[in-house]
Write a structure and sequence with these properties.
single chain, 301 residues, alpha/beta, Arc Repressor Mutant, subunit A, D-Maltodextrin-Binding Protein, domain 2, 3 domains, nine-stranded mixed sheet, two-stranded antiparallel sheet, 24% strand, elongated
Length: 301
């Protein structure tokens, strides 16, 4: 007899509290259930069930075996579901949480291509700059930049970006260029207002020493694109990711403020809830993004 079928018959008898209800649950005869359980006990050489005229209950050995058997059966069920899922066309509503700058500059331009490729998927992309709780807030996935917080979420690295301090040539003409980290205390700095640690820049000195620069700054906003425009206008020095500063730097609109400092490289990740397998719609979108960003590197934006 099939080992999994024997296991399922035994576990169902324990779950249902008897052979009659187990037979009804499995859709087979009571005698068939009994034969499966008897064959299992004979193969194992142990009595797994206490049988009386009124009730059926697992023996001590049977209870221990039940725990393991139920895990095996659950794993087998999930394996079957995985195959079914992977053969099912991706569909349904996909809710994504994305940092505003990344969403506006990188995801929005390619969403149309994704939706044409997967017409049965609809996307609800929520742009915000706070840390969302995926499961409790009903999101299927999120895009996160930088060091990931410890969590039970699964993650796939899509690409990398860098952060540099940049400003317009006109700013350096008026205020000079900082030569060392301490010089930043006398410069006009442009800050994100949504930083968890306030107006603080975490930098690495040429020696490798980790430094923090604290300054009220000349401007604080909650949008990187606005900071970039302020920097291009000569209002101060901004600390921005390469997907914002790369093109303006190529055009000569901004320059790096302190080229001698080590560059801060940050990963860009797709994160999603844990589980034995990933939903087809989530897998489709992550694979799509991985293809789109395949030729992107820390400086190649």
């Amino acid at each position: 007899m099939d080992r999994l079928t024997e296991m399922e018959a035994f576990a169902t008898v324990v779950d249902q509290g008897g052979f009659t209800d187990a037979a009804r649950k499995m859709g087979i005869s009571k005698s068939a259930v009994s034969k499966h359980v008897s064959a299992l006990e004979a193969r194992l050489g142990a009595r797994l069930l206490n049988r009386t005229t009124r009730r059926v209950s697992p023996t001590e050995i049977g209870l221990a075996y039940y725990d393991r058997a139920r895990r095996v059966l659950n794993d087998a069920g999930e394996a079957d579901a995985l195959v079914t899922s992977m053969q099912t066309a991706p569909s349904g509503l996909l809710r994504i949480s994305v940092a505003t700058d990344f969403g506006v500059n990188l995801l929005s331009p390619v969403l149309g291509e994704f939706l044409l490729e997967y017409p049965d998927i609809t996307v609800n992309m929520v742009l915000n700059n706070r840390y969302v709780e995926l499961i409790s807030e009903g999101f299927d996935m999120a895009i996160r930049i930088g060091e990931l917080e410890d969590s039970s979420l699964r993650a796939r690295k899509l690409t990398e970006t860098t952060k540099r301090m940049i400003a317009a040539p006109s700013y350096f003409s008026r205020f000079g260029r900082p030569e060392k980290i301490d010089d930043l205390n006398t410069h006009r700095l442009l800050h994100y207002s949504n930083q968890a640690n306030g107006n603080v820049w975490k930098l690495t000195a040429p020696s490798g020493e980790k430094r923090q620069v604290r300054s009220a700054g000349g401007l604080t906003v909650n949008d990187g694109q606005s900071l970039l425009h302020a920097a291009i206008s000569g209002l101060g020095i901004a600390y921005l990711p390469s997907f914002l500063y790369a093109q303006p730097m190529k055009e000569g609109l901004v320059e790096e403020a302190m080229p001698g400092l080590p560059v801060d490289v940050q990963g860009i990740y797709a994160v999603y809830p844990p589980g034995r397998f990933i939903q087809p719609k989530v897998r489709a979108f992550i694979d799509f993004l991985a293809r789109k960003f395949a030729d992107k590197g820390p400086e190649n934006w």
